[in-house]
Structure to design on (135 residues):
């Protein structure tokens, strides 16, 4: 981190409040991570479910289409796992800054997570549009 970023001084009497707020933020990151991983898993398994359904309804028709739900689902699960690692890293950084008596915002991390969510959202929208007319 650069030293020229603005810091906000923390009075030592407020450290407990700051530690607890940091922990709540960490847990919010983890909840979000679990939600993204879960949605990714459901999406990844969606193509398998569709294939099984097609085989049950018309066993004589070969099913070859793998679809894009698996790669998008795996990307979401990977991103969810990455979010938990980023959460732990950010929790550690903020705790260290609290102990130093100064904290700062991490705009780069906010931008990174926003870009990743926008890309995954775009992939989900493309998936929805590409599969909208399929039985």
């Amino acid at each position: 981190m650069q030293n020229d970023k603005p810091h906000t001084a923390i009075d030592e009497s407020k450290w407990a409040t700051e530690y607890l707020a940091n922990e709540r933020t960490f847990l919010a990151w983890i909840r979000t991570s679990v939600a993204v991983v879960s949605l990714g898993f459901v999406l990844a398994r969606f193509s398998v479910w569709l294939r099984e359904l097609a085989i049950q309804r018309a066993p004589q028709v070969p099913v070859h289409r793998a679809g894009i739900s698996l790669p998008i689902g795996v990307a979401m699960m990977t991103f969810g796992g990455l979010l938990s690692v980023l959460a732990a890293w950010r929790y550690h950084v903020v705790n260290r800054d609290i102990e130093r008596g100064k904290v700062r915002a991490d705009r780069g991390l906010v931008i990174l997570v926003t870009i990743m969510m926008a890309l995954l959202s775009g992939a989900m929208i493309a998936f929805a549009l590409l599969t909208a007319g399929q039985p």
Notes: The mean pLDDT is 82.
